[in-house]
Amino acid sequence: MLWFRYWEFWMRSVVPIWFRKLYIHFEEDLPTDGPIIFACTHPNSALDYFFLPLILRNGVSVLVRGDIFRNPILNFIFRRIWMLPVFRFRDGYSSLKDNATSFGACYEEFDNHGHVLIFPEGASVQHKTVQPLQKGSARLALNYLEKHGGDKMYIVPMANNYSRYRQFRSTIATRFGKAIDVNEYRDLYRENENKAFQKLTSDIAVELKRHFIEVNNYSDDCLTEKALMALRLDRLEERSEFYIEDDTVFQSERALVEKLNDLGEDALSAEWKETAIRVGLDQRTEGILKHQYSKDVYWVQRAILAPIMLISFIPSLLPHYISQWLIDNKIKDIIFYTTIHIAGNLILYSFQTIILAIVFGSLFGWLGLLVPLTVYLISKIGGEVVDEFLFAHYNWKKVAYRDDFKMLNEEVKALIR
């Protein structure tokens, strides 16, 4: 538990710097009379694992692709943050026998009414569509009941909806569906195991699709994504907390996406499309209709906040440089870029703080601990004003187009009235 509190502290420090808000919705209370498998969508690599332990405030074991554990350094790190390897046929038939150890660890969690996170899609794909599900979640759940002797088991569908997959200061809407009582599939399992796996997997897929915003023909800059940017033009979250139980953001965005999925490119006028290009509509204009200052005020704000942002970034220079070096030289797939940015900075920054505490503590005693504390507080200050600085920096000229932005916002809202 102490180990989890250590990582929870750093995750709660770093994750809210990268992401603006995490909107959470539980369709019903989580079951308390048995273990839970969280069957989660997997569009954004290891980041999809970060949110559940923070929401539940407890360590959660997660099954991830086994081939990455062959690196001894990664194996050491991942196992200490509750990651367990699962090997697939593509990893070699001989590797499958190693899954027994991971499944055994899951059964131990289940015996204590613990929680395990699984990504049933089997691969991380940055498309806003639920991918075909593998049977692993169903197999683990039913085998626990029938072969391990478990009494209860629930599967809770979980969907992470990212506003942008790789954008700094994006948002997430995480939804938890109704718990699926796996006991209801036991009779079918006893008749035909494979049919039970297929039925349970199919039911999980149906639930995930209810909680995940699926975009037809998705790309980072497709028309639907542009329309979502326009919808967010008058969104300015005034609540200071990072974790917010609120379903309105998800509902409004899903309604717009479903309308565009049905109507296609003709849903928005030619004037709308031309204006969106002319005024530079993008993810950084979020909230521009709520900001009421003039261009000159934003220019002054940018000048005042720039030194604060620079000073607050200095403590993160080394972790950021190392993480960026890994991305530039070792990581080939862009799907891992944000994960390396966040996880790399989290791990390296925490180690840097420990080293500062040891060095200055040995030199100056308890007073020396003020050094890492001061460094940490400087970073926190930067995190508190980052949105104000970025908005002023990118939009001080664009506020002249408020009427155009209002038109873009009103046209997309008209689609969902």
- Sheet-strand content, in percent, reads 5-15%
Helix content: 40-55%
Number of helices: 15
Q: What characterizes the major β-sheet? A: 9 strands, mixed
Rg, nearest Å: 23 Å
What is the residue-mean pLDDT, rounded to a whole number?
A: 92
Sheet/helix structural class:
alpha/beta
Overall geometry: globular
N/C terminus separation: 48 Å
Low-confidence stretches: none
Number of strands: 9
Order of helices and strands: HEEHEHEHEHEEEHHHEHHHHHHH
What can you see in these coordinates?
The structure is a single chain. With 417 residues, this protein is of the alpha/beta class. It is 52% helix and 11% strand. It contains 15 helices and 9 strands. The protein has helices at residues 2-18, 47-56, 72-79, 99-111, 136-146, 186-191, 193-211, 223-231, 248-263, 270-278, 295-313, 317-329, 337-364, 370-395, 402-415, and strands spanning 19-26, 36-40, 61-65, 83-86, 115-118, 154-162, 170-176, 180-181, 243-245. Strand 3 (61-65), helix 3 and strand 4 form a beta-alpha-beta unit. The N and C termini lie far apart (48 Å). The relative contact order is 0.12. The model has no long low-confidence stretch (mean pLDDT 92).
